[in-house]
Amino acid sequence: MRVTQGCFSFLPDLSDEQIKAQVGYAMSNG
């Protein structure tokens, strides 16, 4: 799964679990 939009555009390809962790972190610290 490639994430190439929004705040993840600068990151390399991530696994679903990593994406969930990043989203969870961003939401809790937004």
Describe the protein's topology.
Elements (H helix, E strand, L loop, with lengths): L15 H14 L1
Descriptive tags:
30 residues; mainly alpha; 47% helix; Ribulose-1,5-bisphosphate carboxylase/oxygenase small subunit; chloroplast
As a percent range, the share of strand residues is: under 5%
- Which stretches are poorly predicted, pLDDT < 50 over at least 5 residues? none
Terminal-residue CA separation: 24 Å
| SSE pattern | H
Structural shape:
elongated
Q: Output the structural class.
A: mainly alpha
Can you give the mean pLDDT? Answer: 70
Give the tally of structural domains. Answer: 1
Number of helices: 1
How would you characterize the largest beta sheet? none
Count of DSSP strands: 0
Helix content: 40-55%
Cα-based radius of gyration, to the nearest Å: 9 Å
Organism: Dactylosiphon bullosus
InterPro entries: RuBisCO_ssu_sf
Keywords: Chloroplast, Plastid
Protein name: Ribulose-1,5-bisphosphate carboxylase/oxygenase small subunit
Written description of the protein model:
With 30 residues, this protein is mainly α. It has one domain. 47% of the residues lie in helices and 0% in strands. It contains one helix and no strands. It is elongated, with a radius of gyration of 9 Å. The mean pLDDT is 70.
Write a brief caption for the model.
With 30 residues, this protein is an all-alpha fold. It has one helix and no strands.
